[in-house]
Amino acid sequence: MIAMIEPVAYGELKLTPSTLGELTMKEFNALVNGYVRRRDSFENLLILRCALPVYSSMLGEKAPTFDDLTAYRKLRDKRPEKHDSRYESDVKYWSKKLDELERKDKCLKAKKSKQK
Q1: How far is CA 63 from CA 30, 60, 67, 96, 101, in A?
Q2: How far apart are CA 40 and CA 25, in angstroms?
Q3: DSSP state of 64
Q4: pLDDT tens, residue by residue, 51-80
Q5: Could you give the CA distance from residue 24 to residue 31 in angstroms, rounded to a whole number?
Q6: What SS3 class is residue 114?
Q7: For the purposes of burial, counting CB atoms within 10 Å of the CB of 87, is it exposed (0-12), middle (13-18) or buried (19 or more)?
Q8: Would you say the C-alpha torsion 106, 112, 114, 116 has a positive or negative sign?
Q9: Rounded CA gap, 22 and 24, in Å?
Q10: pLDDT, tens digit, for every residue of 72-88?
Q11: Residues 21-56, buried b or exposed e (16+ Cβ, 10 A)?
Q12: Predicted TM-score (pTM) above 0.85
């Protein structure tokens, strides 16, 4: 396991041995996910500003689209452990809680205004 983690930690993430030793697996996974998001963002910029204009000028209507050039991400992200579903469930949970708090707050304000 360490043999798989060390190249990423010391390479792409630029961690030191002491920093790597202090991280939990959850923190390490978060760092890796952040790196992948930054790389995808940079790749989006490269595709939109460089590749697509060149392809469209050279190939015209036969040029690949943005979705064609990033289709491999869909395959990459179809792993069994999808982190977005956890994020989405957290968002739904907290959105529901905030809505409940807003309703309670409105009820309290309405009661206070009726008492005046």
Answers
A1: 36, 6, 12, 44, 51
A2: 22
A3: P
A4: 999 999 999 999 999 999 998 888 887 765
A5: 11
A6: helix
A7: exposed
A8: negative
A9: 7
A10: 888 887 765 555 556 66
A11: eebeeeebeebeeeeeeeeeeeeeeebeeeebeebe
A12: no
Report the candidate in 88, 39, 113, 54 with the shortest Cα–Cα distance to residue 105. 113
Amino acid at 109: K
Tokens (6 digits) for 60 = 């015209």
Q: Which two tokens stand for residue 94?
A: 């907290």
Place of tokens 């708090």: 101
Task: Tell me the per-residue pLDDT of 2-53, one tens digit each, with 9 for 90 and over.
Answer: 778 888 889 989 999 999 989 988 899 899 999 999 999 999 999 999 999 9
Which amino acid belongs to residue 29? N
Q: Could you report how far apart the first and last alpha carbons of the chain are, in Å?
A: 67
